[in-house]
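Support request, please re-run this one:
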Amino acid sequence: QMEMEGDQTTEVEPTPKEHEINYEPADILDLPSTKYLNVEYPGYVRNTEKAINTLGGIDHIQHVFNEGNVLKCQFDPHDHFSSILYGGLKKTTNFLLKVKIDSETQEIDHSIVGLVNHTYDFSGIASYEYKFNDEGVK
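Re-run finished. Output below.
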């Protein structure tokens, strides 16, 4: 900063702020080039294969992603009358982190596996559904 007094110019040191924090720059990491697609599944997954089938299968998910369309989730894919949830595609800036914990020493090992640039988000409200079988309502 410069301060003027009459015809003289003097250099003034900036006053340090009372709550100023000096940060050290973080290390720069080389991130893997592998890219992943994230699906925020609209339910509790007990069986991965069944969950993927409710989305149409791996090939269908890849096709829908490549086309940029919405992803449909039908909890009973064999029942054409069951409700459908729609997942919208959004850009994200996340990474997939692999974490290992040694059961004996409790040491934590971690590494970044890849980048997650897109996410399917099922944020809509699901409707109620009644299932019918030979005996009536389930």
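The mean pLDDT is 84. The helical segments are 48-54, 58-67.
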